Amino acid sequence: MKLGRLNHIGIATPSLAASLAYYRDIMGATITHEPFDLPAQGVKVCFVDTPGENGPNGPTAGTQIELIEPLGENSPIHGFIAKNPAGGQHHMCYEVPDIMAAKAWFEGLGKKVLGEPRIGAHGTPIFFVHPKDMNGVLTEIMETPKDGAH
Ligand SMILES: CC[C@@H](C(=O)O)C(=O)SCCNC(=O)CCNC(=O)[C@H](O)C(C)(C)COP(=O)(O)OP(=O)(O)OC[C@H]1O[C@@H](n2cnc3c(N)ncnc32)[C@H](O)[C@@H]1OP(=O)(O)O
Ligand SMILES: [Co+2]
Predict the structure, then answer these.
(1) What was the ipTM of the complex prediction?
(2) Which of 64, 128, 129, 136 has the fewest CB atoms found within 10 Å of its own CB?
(3) Using CA atoms, how far apart are residues 45 and 35, in angstroms rounded to an integer?
(4) How many folded domains does the chain comprise?
């Protein structure tokens, strides 16, 4: 199996409002989606894009940062925020063409897949692989949107 592009970097925060202001006003990022609740994932989320630049191969799109704040009692990021009260880098998300094939591939390698695929913030199925099996990085795998949207 081959991983596709890096879709987003997940940043956990105790305050979406404060993080949004930081990325917009200090880092020059663009808010591409206003905050919305995702109860199925136990988070409140919004996306910002880094400005993007002219690279050696022409103009490059900015990189997407996904800001997540705990939502509800059972949020999977409560533990992370308890250990990192100011928030911090939480996960990296890679695209794949076929979510079930990717799940089977990681499981075949003996990696701990956390639960069954569920619909994520981009409207396609996602799953997570435990950081202890992924060089310390919580890894999100996401099926590439069929319409090519990111
Ligand atoms: C916006 C929606 C969606 C999208 O479409 O993009 C998302 O991105 S949702 C993002 C939030 N959802 C998830 O993270 C779901 C999967 N995560 C989990 O199930 C849990 O967070 C976890 C990975 C199992 C950790 O849960 P926690 O309660 O913190 O467990 P432990 O306390 O037992 O931690 C075990 C161990 O792992 C270390 N850890 C925890 N989180 C991370 C992390 N993000 N990155 C790296 N390491 C992490 C933790 O410190 C423990 O280490 P030790 O203390 O050394 O044992
Ligand atoms: Co994510």
Answers:
(1) 0.97
(2) 136
(3) 5
(4) 1
Digit-by-digit pLDDT tens for the chain (150 residues) are: 878 999 999 999 999 999 999 999 999 888 888 899 999 899 999 999 987 776 666 666 778 999 999 998 899 999 999 999 999 999 999 999 999 999 999 999 999 999 999 999 999 999 999 999 999 999 999 999 887 666
- From 35, 97, 64, 119, select the one nearest 127 (Cα to Cα): 119
Q: What is the CATH number of the domain that holds 48?
A: 3.10.180.10
95 close to 7: Cβ distance less than 8 angstroms: yes
In a domain, 127, yes or no: yes
Provide residues with CB under 6 Å of ligand 1. Answer: 10, 38, 41, 43, 45, 66, 68, 76-77, 79-80, 83, 90-91, 93, 114, 120-122, 126, 128, 130-131, 136, 138, 140
